[in-house]
Structure formats: C-alpha cells, structure tokens
Amino acid sequence: MDEELMERALALAREAQLAGEPPFAALLVDARGTLVARATDEVRRHHDYTLHAESTAVRRACARVGSDLAGHVLYTTVEPCPMCFTASWLARVSRIVFGCTMEAVHAATRGQQRELMVPAERMNALSGEPLVLVGGVLASRCLSLFGGEMRDAP
C-alpha cells in the first residue's frame, strides 16, 4: 500500500512541477487508507514559504476531520522539513512515509532547494513521542523529479 500511495503522490508532484511549483506532494490517509487530504507546494503561486505540501495537507485534514490525526498516515515525496514534521507531529499523525531525503534533494539541486538540513529521524528522536517514520519509498523516482539520481549503496 505504501508504494501505491507514493505513486499517487508522485503524480501529484509532477502536476505541481508542470504548474511551476517545486515537485513536492503529500497525501494524508486515514487508518483504512481513505484519502483525507492532498496538497502540493504552493510557495511560488502564493508567495508564501509556509505553503509546503505536507503542512497544507495536515491543515486540510484537520479542517476536515478535526485536529487529532492519530491513526492517519502522511505520504510525502520528500522527507519533511522541520516545519512540516512539527505540524504532523503536533496533529498526532501516526506515521510518515517519505520518498527521498532532503539531503539527496539538496545535492541534486546543488543547494538551490533551500531547507534546514535537520533529518526527520533526528526530530523524531527529540520529540519525546516518536511517530513511525518510513523513508526511501520509491526514493529514486521521487528524486528524479529534481533531476537527480540515487546511487545504489556499495
């Protein structure tokens, strides 16, 4: 199911890219796998750097089902930044599944994709109430949206 939902997020990220936005996308699903919210980055269109896909998906899901997203899963094409991780954590999202790492995106874009380089794993460890964090789902395909390639580990 993780790969299927990441495929949907990838398609959404491609749509965002065609619309002139960075290719980030997020889906939030409930415990049954039903789509509750979806979003892409809208930072360029609205001139607002807080409109990341993950934070917007959390905001939309909370508006729809309430502020407690326990049991929900966030699927995102790229590892969430500190702002997006915190929004997810505060809303009590139970699980975050992401594609490629922000470090890989930073390298692929030669630093043009600007983010605080704090891994989600580190934020999760510091949270005191860690959630389930799964990275690397369709990572190569997610990174390819930024013109990058992942090398296989030796």
Structure summary:
With 154 residues, this protein is α/β, with parallel strands linked by helices. It contains seven helices and five strands, in the order αββααβαβααβα.
3D structure, described in words:
This protein is α/β, with parallel strands linked by helices and 154 residues long. It is built from seven helices and five strands; from the N terminus they run H-E-E-H-H-E-H-E-H-H-E-H. It has helices at residues 2-18, 43-46, 53-65, 82-90, 102-108, 120-126, 139-144, and strands at residues 25-29, 35-40, 73-78, 95-100, 132-134. It has a five-stranded mixed sheet with strand order 2-1-3-4-5, with helices on both faces. A hairpin with a 5-residue loop joins strand 1 (25-29) and strand 2. Helix 3 packs parallel to helix 4 (82-90). Mean pLDDT is 92; it is low at 150-154.
